[in-house]
């Protein structure tokens, strides 16, 4: 899906340069800590100053490495119709990531299961507004931790033919994700040429990266698969309580990660990732459904453009525990900000409640609608001659109406987004059962899952993947 | 309140010119109908071609008249601290306008009363996020239609010292609004010099203006009070089913109205108003909480800038009948679009449900929060040296935390918006009573109204207004 509007740049060129300069000073004078020895070794080889686990970066080195990263790349799906371009004017929506809990329609909480996982993948597979089925859409608590990464991936592969994400939890699990994807696409060399997998590498804010994530980064970069280098600065606790300061910490972390990726495999696809948000200073907890977070998202889209790499940020973000007005306005703010400012890769587009702690099926339906709405907005206004409509305006004249005009019948389905969850009835129509969007979402997601038909997977391919997972499970369990 | 971010221009200069050219062609070749003889007489005097009620405009004449309208003006409150600049980088929020019904927390409907009216004015008076108490905030059904315009105005004057709107329902009611405001401010000459009143003049789409509205426009223009010339094109029924076509019809109507205002009193303050939206093609009803409406809002902000006049558009717009996720995401979309694209005067910022048919106190609290959130967003990112925070970033270093830093304590209250309705608790905290935003809003608005203290009104001024209303009521009833 494309942004056809001019992208909303909230920062001036001078402000971008200010953040860049502040970031470079942090990288040079404060440095970043890497706990993973192979990473430190790489930086040492590239002539960077290393002191224990701390690396101090040369400005020119970072700028040169980041410069070498591709500005866009194609992510390949097993159904080529679902191939995606990541970067440029493209916006990719997908479900939430990593939540351990499910909140139900009444606000009750339970652990997520693999059945939930399958259902979210089916909902994303069925959605017209989501482009990928995501990754780690919930943490299914009923499958063993050791093999969970493969169970999750198997759900994506068997329930949909859209693109998906793999695990970055250490070098070994990352390798499993890559091997399985290679089986799906016809070999490691095939996906090295045509990236088919993307993973999420998070920094440990402030200014650190841990073993697990660095191992993942290394495996993906070596295999030429895409990596999101993401920083979640909690302004006020893991970063300064100012947007500009937290943004600088985030920027330093992300550039350090991108630099590492490019050192490992020059030209490997990377994505500039931000999930920075604020700390609720009363409780110390993360708060994501707020205007400060929308500012982080917007600024990050622009920083990524400045560095010439695709961006990741935003989503349908909320601190609410249930699908209500708060979940609606917070999610719209953060998804609208992401879309209008030109974020390319929008993890967490659908389903998230309570600052990433929970997924909800009703919330998924809410966000699917929001994704459709913002997609229509960023398509903008078609100003070709037929759309300017002078002839029909002249024909109808003052005081007439357009309902029966051919021009109307021809155009409204193209011009107007068709809502799936929103209610446009009269009061009396609605008052027959007085359903809220939460209640309508509850009916709707069950209908979609019930009617979903998974796309056929080549039985030979499926068998190879089954065998790989069986073999690896024996080793791991 | 200011937009400190660059304004979001969704149209290119070329697209603006295209709409302008299409509009000029409509004004010249299709024309606009005015049912009010004095208006037609004015156009005839200015050399425009008149055929019955239809006026065909010269392009140069319209361009010249619109050029003469002020780009911004100050609206005066009885408390000068609440004076407002309308135009430029300023955004003014106020309650909804004109709804006959109240929907309660459970989605039940009843007629609005003058007690409701007072309560909405008090909520707007108490709000940090709303700048005016609005006008016609509901249609109170328990006061006589003949004198309702004065009952409503009296509520604004006695319950708050912020700016408010007057009636534009015909020349006589408009005159009452102006006379009462003159009593409040010390004379007609005082408010002619320092405008203190603004009214809403709606076209009759497509391409018409009726007697009542033209009478209002004439009275306000003569008295030097501000007039919003607003068009609500229902794309698909009262206008073409294309955004570009409907926008052109809207633009023709608004420019015709602005031209008339400037003919009556050159330099009189006018506001370019858009409430254009779409038709729900299934029912034929208006639908306002949608991306097409957000595009109309955004494009209108830019058209008004092109013409050098303040803009009105947007609000917390929704088609929902209750405060739920839909009311949340639709209202955020339309208020965010209005704010980021630089709309100056945002009628309907708080309280509206069901495409202008109803007001809700819970919705008011939802929208007050949304207004606070978007206000924070458009304040942007402060990049002064202290906010860049290099020193504290250096001091805390990798792996540390910022919670106890002086820099944090000093900055978080300035940088972070403090929510009033949104819940940021943990799941367990929230699960104690599982309140939705709708339920919290219900508690909150009652607290605010209960604790509200109306600002003191000079007893002599009050007596004069009382006498005026008593005298006029005798004549009208």
From TrEMBL, chains A, B:
GO molecular function, one term: methyltransferase activity
Lineage top rank: taxon: Bacteria
Alphabetized Gene3D superfamilies for the sequence: Trimethylamine methyltransferase-like (3.20.20.480)
GO-annotated biological processes: methanogenesis; methylation
Keywords, sorted A to Z: Methyltransferase, Transferase
Enzyme Commission code: 2.1.1.-
Family: Belongs to the trimethylamine methyltransferase family.
Protein name (record): Methyltransferase
Organism expressing this protein natively: Alkalibaculum sporogenes
Lineage: Bacteria, Bacillati, Bacillota, Clostridia, Eubacteriales
